[in-house]
Amino acid sequence: MSQLPPPPVPEGPMFKWLQDHKGFDRLRQFLRQLRPWKDQDMNVYDVFRFFTLGLVNGSVSTRAAAISFRLFVAFFPAMLLLLSIVPFTPLETEEVLLSLEYFFPKQAIDLFEQTVTDLIDQRQGTLLSVGVVLLVYYASNSVNSILMGFGESPHVPGKPNWLLFRLLSVGLMLLLSVLLGVAVFLIGFAGDLVQWAETKDLLNTDDIPLLMMARWTLSFALMYATVAILYNAGNRIKKRWEWFSIGATAAATLLIIVTFAFSWFIGQFASYNTLYGSLGTLMITLLWLNSNSSILLLGFELNAAIHRAQRDAENTEKPIS
């Protein structure tokens, strides 16, 4: 495995003042005493230092912009495929429109409500075939951009193999589509199913909160599994599969919080659509995608910083006692 050179220390008066400040020196000594990992040669300060340097030197905002653009391009083929599949299911048009409001602003649903109605009421076999082709191409591009963005981390040595990442992206796209499809079903349709069972006296009223909690717990587990799979696939130097990690936990939690925050914002400040028109929906969608892309990169950088500190601790020569 190729060794990485020490990351460059940022220059500037603010960083120089911070390094010379006595309070920062005391904080640094305190963090060096914290060793919550099994490898006792690692400490919190080294992880924090590598994480900060990775953010400063890793062009996180540029990588997040590239990922969010690919995700935005893949969004429309995904919607086309989803809406083309619905007519072949027993779902009603109104159920689909209400379920879509779980994920998108109502103003966005109103913009293409007629298109949704036409697609649901008529079975478009040709459109379904076109949607599958477009989704495979653009969705694999979005997954590939995520993996390439991970590979540009300053804590991951070497350059990513574009051919390997391209092939891996197709397989991951299929796997993640299944996971995300199940998550969408749980969030969008399981609540209605529970209410229907309650009206038919098939469920006890006391059991409904537990079922709703189980639904969201399973949805979070699927979200976490998606993030963990992406992180393991994007880390080329990690030989052992790591299901549970600090970065994946933080990223999955923040993804859900940001999604709810955007939903709350849209509900509280719905007048943005009056000010910007239909462009307001695009602005909100792009901001949401960019925020999620940044969160994915931050979680990966945190894991990469932990692995970098671990490798440096292992390579440090221990004094002979």
Plain-language structure description:
The chain has 321 residues and is mainly α. It has one domain (60-315). The chain has helices at 13-20, 22-33, 44-57, 60-85, 93-100, 106-111, 113-121, 125-151, 162-188, 190-199, 208-234, 246-268, 272-276, 279-315.
Domains (count): 1
Put simply, the count of helices is 14
What average pLDDT do the residues reach? Answer: 70
Q: Please bin the fraction of helical residues.
A: over 70%
Tertiary shape: globular
| Protein structure class | mainly alpha
> Could you give the distance between the termini?
29 Å
How many beta strands in the DSSP annotation?
0
Strand content: under 5%
Low-confidence stretches: 317-321
Oligomer: single chain
> What series of H and E elements makes up the topology?
HHHHHHHHHHHHHH
Rg of Cα set: 23 Å
| Largest pleated sheet | none
